[in-house]
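Example record

One chain of 350 residues, shown exactly as stored in the release files.
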Amino acid sequence: MEPTKPRNPLAYLLKTALALVLLVCLGTAGYRILEGFDLLDSLYMTVITLTTVGFGELHALSPAGRIFTILLILGGGGVAAYTVTASVEYLVSGQWRAQWDARRRRKMLDTLNRHVIVCGFGRVGRFVAQDLKSEGVPFVVVEKEAERMEQTRRFGYLALQGNAANEALLEQAGIRRARGLVAAVDSDAENVYITLTARGLNPDLNIIARANFEESESKLLRAGANRVLLPYSISGRRMVTMLLHPEIADFLEEVAHAGGMELLLEQVKVGQASKLAGLTLAEAKSRLQLNVSVLAYKNPGAAANQRPGPETRFLEGMQIFAFGTRDDLRLLSELASVSPERRNPGSDDS
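Predicted structure tokens for this chain:
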């Protein structure tokens, strides 16, 4: 025997509203036909009969009219009980909240732009989401397991439930407007499928994939990943550094959090007509209060230069590798981006 399909409380509630409207129409038509009342009087009699408010009759009713009124009262009571049951079930079920959350989530997804899609909210995906939040980068999590979805809600993250290799789900996550995707599910095979699907939907997407096994790295790169990380390999190298060169590890940790300020590495690109273009490093520091350490730079089609000096001039398209605090690096990114007032110098908004 097949299990019965669960009833949808909202559809149930809508049916009661439809039944009530039909009952009002039937009552109005009945009084017009049986008693010859005009439309307004017929509607009035129907309403006071269904609501049982106890008002008197407008006109004396015929025997047929009285029998019709009795049937209308019985029908109204049934619909009223039906409506109360549906309303209580709808409120108690919590479906109204789920629908409100789904509508709010759709609106938030529609407004996302230049965001990151995090596929998988496991051990790796959870830390990716935390770091993206601390960096102020908008993101959406795609997770298929209900338990992990509940964890994303507790953290307050925007999330979608389902298989991240599903094209429709990635479209819903705004993959064509996204800046990047992290394939961080526990299975290397699933990460390959996710990478293939994502690359097909957005050829310009920056895809970072996780791999548990070294032999999966080449497959993920062929599938379209820009970078592949092996968490266990990275952890192993970090442990060896701590073991053999503990002073270096401690020094890097102290520098990264010197004076209570978190120091980070950042890569930015000098955009067209940006405020940095044409300035030397010394000029940018004096004129624009740029307070970062430029470790290296790379011009298009050239190798990276790891010895920048005060005379190094910023050119359009140059990649800058800098070290500094979060605020200083944010300023660098803003200065390197396209300057709106310089983008179209001859434009006139008037």
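Notes: The first strand starts at residue 116 and ends at 119.
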